[in-house]
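Repro:
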Amino acid sequence: MKTLYLIGGTMGVGKTTVCQALKKKLDKCVFLDGDWCWDADPFVVTEETKKMVLQNITFLLSSFLSVSAYENVVFCWVMHESSIIDAILSKLDTENVRVMKISLMATPETLTGRLSEDIADGKRQIDVLERSLARLPLYEKLDTLHVHTDNKTKEEVANEIAML
């Protein structure tokens, strides 16, 4: 049986970093970052672009799930609302797939420290901090497994997820 890991979390919580480490720990694994399906400049959010990114994501995830070479499919994206997770899953054939819905969590202090470093290094714009902190409480309400990343390395978090 294949396993699909849907790993959400607010910006700066460590989704991509953890998933890159998780990919190396799981057998026959492929990784998709939702941000890769919508990397545009300027970044424009409209109903049309939201529909497009969901089509891109579900096409790739369906392709990965249908290939015998992969047993584990890891996907990460912001996914701060259950409707996003539901929209993705509704377009996938998960009959013979174990679906693991996970939210990476961090305290506001940890998140602020990580994002402040990224802002100082020029990796992110300053407005990401306010947006990320505002979304953080939304993950508490989701019907997902909550994996806390505070005071843990990417390897420790990836190990925790791999053991689920």
